Amino acid sequence: MQRMGMVIGIKPEMIDTYKRLHTAVWPEVLAQIKGSNIRNYTIFLREPENLLFGYWEYHGTDFESDMARMAQDPKTREWWTHTDPCQSPLAAAAASEQWSMMQEVFHTD
After folding, report:
1. Tens digit of each residue's pLDDT (9 = 90 or more) over 80-94
2. CB contact at 8 A, 57 and 35
């Protein structure tokens, strides 16, 4: 299992929309997340900085392949047409990067 963290900005005027979307995530999207070997997926909001922090545990063996399969899923792609406009990628994000991945520097159980 690999713990993973990521961060992205959120547009202040879209916070309520983003929260509303995540009170009823589509079942097909949830199934795709699980099918991509992601468990314990959590998104936190930090205001007034307007940052989203995502955390998940990856239980697969080929992360790139699982993420590519997720990116090709039609229902997930449709979901992203609703969530992506709410987000503001970080200034330092790569051109191909929506959420910016973070490096784990400490963990304890």
Report:
1. 999 999 999 999 888
2. no
> How many angstroms separate the CA atoms of 10 and 50, rounded?
5
Listed by start position, the domains of the chain span 2-92
On whether the pTM is more than 0.85, the answer is yes
Q: How far is CA 85 from the centre of its chain?
A: 14
Write down the mean pLDDT value for the chain. 96
Distance between CA atoms of residues 36 and 32, nearest Å: 6
Q: Which residues contact 31 (CB under 8 A, 6 or more apart)?
A: none
Tell me which fold the domain 2-92 belongs to: Alpha-Beta Plaits (3.30.70)
